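Task 17 of the worksheet. Students: predict the tertiary structure of the chain below and write it out as structure tokens. Keep your answer in the requested format; marks are given for formatting as well as content.
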Amino acid sequence: MLKIAVIGAGVSGLSVASLLAKAGYNITVFEKSDAISEIGAGVQISPNGFCVLKEMGVSERALKKSICNNSIAICDYQKGKRLLQFEQRSALGNKNFRLMHRADLIDILLEAAESNKVSIKLGFSADASLLSDQYSIVIAADGVHSKTRNFLNPSQRKNSDVGYFAWRAIVPNTINHHDGVRVTVAPNKHVVSYPIRDRKKLNLVLIQECKNEGVFEWSLEESPDQVRRIFSDFGGDLGEAFCEIKKVNRWGLSSHNIPTIWGKDNIVLIGDALHPMLPFLAQGANFALEDAFVLA
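Model answer:
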């Protein structure tokens, strides 16, 4: 029975811990925060990620905590006119593309890990090089700013600006949004919106092409009035949704080359620590789930 350490209690860390513990290994997760929580935001679980939730035995709970993504609509920003609509149900089945709150996904993964007797140590800034002497394998799921990736790839440390800022907010769903994703497009800007939590809430991701001065954290709070000013040219019912914004976080998007070294000796990278992704196709969480399944 291998003794395995996992650094980070995000989507990839909790998933791989649960899968490996279910297979009979002795798993300890080290999380630097004092509590496992997730800043409020929506997440799309497409069929490739949902397959992993099935393998973990948590798909039924995920169904109860999410909404089926029936279609993707492309809309014009001026009046919200629908330009194109891609139906999801016929090709992907009625259950396999879900919209949910990221915190609900983390809760589901945490419960699965605990039920599989994963040991979780909070408030512990783990060092992969030190843990490698104590554990058979160290899995670094320490996110986009991974110290382990830098340790294995010291010459590939820098994040680079990709020329976009994003803002994320969750507001009351007062606009009767359809059960699916809406992408509202404008010159140099777009907004992604979809309902979550029994359709009572609306997840908003607002993107603008903008020079970034090296701000790559997405937990920075922004003034709602500033966001409304930047996106004041958006008409239709999105304007009503923008009026509901009470708290919004700003995120400077960045790119990081996939590292040359994915693993060395008994240390291996996974999830955003290995291949941090831009949010445009909503695949960050799904690739984290895929990584966990493949590695397990």
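Marker's comment: The first strand starts at residue 3 and ends at 7. The chain has a mean pLDDT of 92.
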